Structures are given as C-alpha cells and as structure tokens.
Structure prediction request, 406 residues.
Amino acid sequence: MTYSLTLWRNARLATLAGSAGWGLIEHGAILTQGETLHWVGAESELPAQFTQKINVTHDLGGALVTPGLIDCHTHLVYGGHRAHEFEMRLQGASYLDIARAGGGIRSTVAATRAASDAQLLADAGKRLQVLMREGVTTVEIKSGYGLSLEHEARSLAVARALGRTLPVAVRTTYLGAHALPPEFEGRSDDYVDAVCAWMPALHAQGLVDAVDAFCENIGFSPAQTRRVFEAAARLGLPVKLHAEQLSDQGGAALAAEFGALSCDHLEHLSEAGIAAMARSGTVAVLLPGAYYFLRDTKLPPIAALRAAGVPMAVASDHNPGTSPGLSLLLMINMACTLFRLTPEEAVRGVTVHAAKALGLSDRGQLVAGQRADFCVWDVAHPNELAYWFGTNPCKRVIVGAQERDL
Prediction:
C-alpha cells in the first residue's frame, strides 16, 4: 500500500491521552494521513518506515499543540438580541419575572420567526467564526427558537448549512421542547404532542443528531420530558437535557434512564441525580457563562460529581438571554475561577469530555486514529489556556489536517 503523510514537527504536544494528566510530549511530532492522526509521539521516536512516505512537513516552531476545542452546548441560530432584559435584571427583575412577562425565550422566538433564512445564516455565521478563531473545531448548535415545525426546520437547516460552508464540524440538536410558543398558551401537553409529532419529519430530512428538552418549572415537566425522550428513542436518536438549572426537577435521573449523552447546567443537581448520571455514563456539561451572567449563587455540585467519576464538560451556552458570550477560552477560565475546576479539568472539559457529550469518539485527544483537529498556541503550557483571559493566544487551527484561515 502506498500513501503519503504530512509531518507536523517541532511542537510541545498536550495530547490529553488517557484518563488523567496533560499527556505532554516534549519535542513532539504528529503525522497525518487524510483527515486522521496517523502517528503521535516524540520526534526522535518517529518510525523510520514513515519517513520516506512524508509528503509535506510543517515546522511548528516549538509551539504548544492541543486537540481542537469542542463547544458542546450552543444556541447560535436566533434573531435579535435581549440586551434590554439584561438591563431589567440589573434593575431587579428575575429570570422568572422576565419569562412570565412574555420576555425571555418567547421574545427571541418572535425575532427568529421574523428573520429570513439568509439573515439567520449570516448572523449565526458571524458568531460561529468568533468561536472558531479561538480554536473551536467542533460545535453543537441547538434549535429551540422556532417552536413550530417550519421554524424549527429552518433553524436546524441553517445549522447544517454552517457546517457545509465553514471549516468546522457542526452537530445539530432538536430543542423543540425549549419553551411554550404563544399559539399553545395554556396547552403545554398539546405542544409536547406537537414536538414529538414533528420529530420524525425533521429526522427524515437529516436535520437532527440529538434531541434536547428544558425540564424546569418554567419549561416542561419530567412527565412531558419523558414523552419527548420516548419519541427520540423510537427514532434511535440520543438525548440530552437542560437539567436542574433553576430547581431540582429530577431531570438528570430521568435523562440518565434514557442513557443521555449529557445533562447541562446542573446547579440544583441532587445526590440521586449524580448517582444516576454516574451509572449511565452521562456527561455533566457545566455552563459558567450562564451562571455568571445571571449572577447565580448556587454552584453545581462539582466536588460530588468529581467524586462520583462523572465526566465534566465545559461549554459556552451561547444564547441571547442568559449567556451571550462567544469565548470558549473565557469559559475555561470561568470554570476554574467560579466552579473551582483545575486547569486540566477545564481543558479536558472542552476537548475529551465535550466530545463525549456529543457522542463523538473520534476527537478530543491527540492519539493515532482520531480526527486531525488540533490547535497551535502562543503559550508554553496548557494551563495558560485557563490562566489568561481577554486575549486570544490561538496561532493556527488545523481541521481534518487542513489549516484553517483565522
């Protein structure tokens, strides 16, 4: 068999191989073939049989290299913004007050429905490119601001289009059970019926990679969430859940029952929920941007999750109402400063565990056989990715072994 390899040499590699540690390799090198990591190790140990098959060589100048970053929870496709609600909260209104007054998610639904496909694509594309410039190579994008078959389909189609037009992998999540649209006022069970009924058509169009719901006292009950998950299971779709953000609804245990990929937010997660997630292998996705922006004071149970061996991912939760940030590097820092993750935990949270939260086993580490998605950084050690904030040390991004313009 003849094949050509590309050598990326003279680097300090933070492979994140294994279940702990940075996996640092000094004077490291990476061989890529096609879109895959073919070999990773110390350059001095490069197997001789590979050298004659190297077609292109890149000298990385001794820079730090990590796996590409993965933002495993975003709501990038929407119309308008909610800066006025931010001002209202500063004047004393609560998230619940705003939602019950017709603001919150519903206001974004109206703006999203009014926006054209081209406008949604252009706006979401600008947001995504900001994330990409900081090293994001895979992103999850949820629907949930359309809340009708037509507009949920539009939102998911825009997300799919972003993955076709930009050098980034996009995973789509159907979040029809995000809020109650105005036309279903007082008929939440009827709306859940509709969410379930739309799912097969959206899936048949190739628009859905996973299904999510907002199980909360201002969202949907555990019984209603169960119906959404049962519909997903009939289609063979994995599930995720916005769980225990504002109150303990027992959503995490319910999601774990369905083998959920992840439960996200989790400020009010109970010991029973932690145990259920540990048994099912469900990832805890921590969203420090929303915690910060809402000025929350109830911390997720980090120590208990750690003790139970529940993998912890970190994501931006970019959305117009509760986390309008577009910096995954800032989320790494916040995960350390606000939630007391270690730098290694936080960086694993946007690589290894973020991949797991999306059901992806082919990325998140620099090991042979994985996708050749990696970042080159202007820092000496990976702990600096958690230390610096307000700056972007990302120098180069490689996606599928191809360098991406920043």
Summary: The two ends are 35 Å apart (CA to CA).
